[in-house]
Target: Beta-aryl ether-cleaving protein
Amino acid sequence: MTILLYELAGADTSRPFSPHCWKTVLSLAHKGLDFERRTVPFTRVGAIEGGISRTVPVIRDGDKVVPDSFSIALYLDETYPTRPSLFGGPGGIAAARFIERWSQLTVHPYLGAAALLDIHSMLAAEDQAYFRDSREKRFGKRLEEVPLDRERRLAAFRATLEPLRSMLAYQPFIGGASPLFADYIVFGAFQWMRISSPFQVLLADDPVAVWFERCLDLHGGLGRSVSAAT
Amino acid sequence: MTILLYELAGADTSRPFSPHCWKTVLSLAHKGLDFERRTVPFTRVGAIEGGISRTVPVIRDGDKVVPDSFSIALYLDETYPTRPSLFGGPGGIAAARFIERWSQLTVHPYLGAAALLDIHSMLAAEDQAYFRDSREKRFGKRLEEVPLDRERRLAAFRATLEPLRSMLAYQPFIGGASPLFADYIVFGAFQWMRISSPFQVLLADDPVAVWFERCLDLHGGLGRSVSAAT
Model:
């Protein structure tokens, strides 16, 4: 049976950009499961499946509805244990949580601020109003002011990626010789940036950029099905 | 057969402090293996087992000699597969490398600088000469100057621990419900600090401090067998 994936999109529904939804897109592809992507704008997320979640992704798999990219990955591994694992055992599940928190607290804050205005410009009018209001409260300043220092902060951001960069001298993926959900966690953040903003955060020869390109190639180049922002 | 562990020590051989050796001490205890700890000063590390390594830990297990804490953990899991795993599967092995790089590049630089003079004062005279020379080259300044800004940099250091702190809201160990080598990696760094310096880097109610205390309790309180520096 085809799994239904509810995924965030802006005015152009052919360019879904949510980092967390991209984690689930690659998770479903990794498991080799059939899935249908259904886009929702920010202001309609709360109405999905009777209001089960304030955020996407949400999947429906037959009678089962599961929100949250990490919970979805766990659900998929439990439900389809004969398909390729997303975690590579219990140690991989536990460590993926550390990597999720690292990505969320190290990678997301800079990228989210750097792309904030670009994301806003991708949204439909009613979503723009919601987005401006919620993000201006979060950042404590006007939307237009948030990305202003992205050039100044870029070198420091690149330095925070050093653990990932250094790890890539040992192995091609966070998952080891092949990718796991831990890769999709960090991939989601850079894919969000790639689709929403023309601002280049990585130098082309950065091992992190080379790893990201490798992730874009996975599962038949699924990540490249949406072009980079120009 | 008893495994022999070569471990770094200063003038007082009852207070081994090396972060990497502590990783291996807990790894051996985790596997429930008998081991004998043999201390070596900095200046005699290169002579161990015919000069197999420039660094410790090194273990001898019968005919097999293995250097490097990560390689030792892999060796122990491969050689003693029926004893508790140090990695919890292939995903755990791969992710442990990320955590090692994170610890080495985020936790070690600050702690190593903050405790530098304290470590120097623990060493025997000939080791002090080697240590001063090698560390002054590495830091590009006099040993006495390196820890001077540790108070000023402390808040920023604590902030870099946020991924670990945030993960601890989900699970008690990096390994999940129970510890794995990934925990011993980060434990080693804080144990190094605890044994060599009275400088307190963590507030007592910091979840990272609570996790560290939990690690000190493991394997019969093995980490507490050396008292904190005063």
Notes: Chain A has a mean pLDDT of 97. Strands of chain A lie at 3-8, 35-40, 58-61, 64-67. Chain A has two domains: 3-79, 90-224.
